[in-house]
Design a protein that fits this description.
Blueprint lengths: L13 H36 L13 E5 L5 E7 L5 E8 L11 H16 L10 E2 L1 E4 L4 H4 L2 H4 L5 E2 L2 E3 L11 H8 L5 E6 L11 E3 L2 E2 L11 E2 L17 E6 L2 E7 L13 H4 L3 E6 L2 E5 L5 H10 L1 H4 L4 E3 L12 H7 L3 E4 L13 H14 L9 E8 L5 E8 L3 E3 H4 L2 E5 L3
Parallel strand pairs: 3-5, 4-6, 5-7, 7-8, 15-16, 16-17, 17-20
Antiparallel strand pairs: 1-2, 1-21, 2-3, 8-9, 9-10, 11-12, 12-13, 13-14, 14-15, 18-19
Amino acid sequence: MKDIPVYSTRRETRSATKPKRDAEAQAVLRKLEKEASDQKRRREQAAARREPGKPGERKDGSLHIAFIPMGQGDCIVLCTPGGRVILFDCGSLGTEKADENLTDAQADKVLADRALDTLNNPKFLGKVKEIDILILTHPDADHCNKIKKIIPDGCKIYKCYHSAEFGEYTGGETSAFLRKKMRDPAILKVVKNHDPNHGVNGQVTLNGKPVKGATTTETVDRLDGKGEKNEKGEKIGEDGILIVDETNCKVSILAAGVEKDYAKDHATPPNRASIVTLVEAFGEKLLLCGDATTSTEEFLLNTAPGRLKDLTVVQAAHHGSVTTSSSLKFVEWVNPKVVVASAGIEIKKHHHPSREVIKGYVDKLEKEKRTDRLKAEHETFVWELNDGGNRSPRSIWSRRKVYTTGSYGAVTLKYPES
């Protein structure tokens, strides 16, 4: 009789298979790192191959920015001097009172057309259907639910930063749309943890990993090295995350994921966690705030006070809501020349912007006795607190550069100014 072979039924232990598992994990990591490196190279090649534009066109050497009227919503598009287009949010929950007789479909088309017309302008996308960076400040629907409707067919998106888990951006099927759109994704979860000076240890992170310092060859998605120091040379502020590095333009994320309620702001954690972006170009500074709150403002004043002093442009946080943002301390410190609140006209459900915020910025400009006034007064719609404790619609007339997008229309700026 032939010998019957004996097979062991004992399974390999986890310790025995660990070398193999470690090797497989390292192989996956190397593949991901190569893909990230390849994509970065493609992004840089795409930016480099764009031809310089004529005046008023993309890559014309100027910084262009537009705040688009979205009713109760937000949408900003920016083009750097080197031709990189950044889209900040695009969403809405309501149109102006003048549009109340429109059907939902008609109102939706009005909003989408406004955003599309601006985005397709020659100084932004023009003929080159490429968005270099999409910033989703936070997952509220009025900041993201129109993304799917306004991204042109065939338009490429090279990178997306966001402050919450990506799946939370459900408004308008945004996250599902972008996952399909960005077939080679560089979607980064941006989390900037709490200020150590407030007793919370934290680090600046991308996708949960600490952001490294810049090198001579690697500057983007690295710390920008501008964390402030005291007289003893001790670091008292945090670096930002540099996301655009051009000769005449630097763009840094200064806050994201700040959920701690430092200031009892009556706001939601996602609003506190909004991405706040600083654009520095030609000696001008623009601060774009999303729905940041007084707690976020407190974080910024504690971590980057020097960078926030005497801004050129500030987007009034959270649509100019006084109950959650634009503290007097913040308004006094940032001392801007231009203020824009993304808010509609007489949208009763939300009561944005508050009179206190708009008047506070106007009064600040008057106190500074600045000479850069507009030639004629313009109307800025606000909600004013009445004797009954409710808010009523009012208007402020001023020659100061304090705007709401609903009252004024699209606010478009260019630097250097002509």
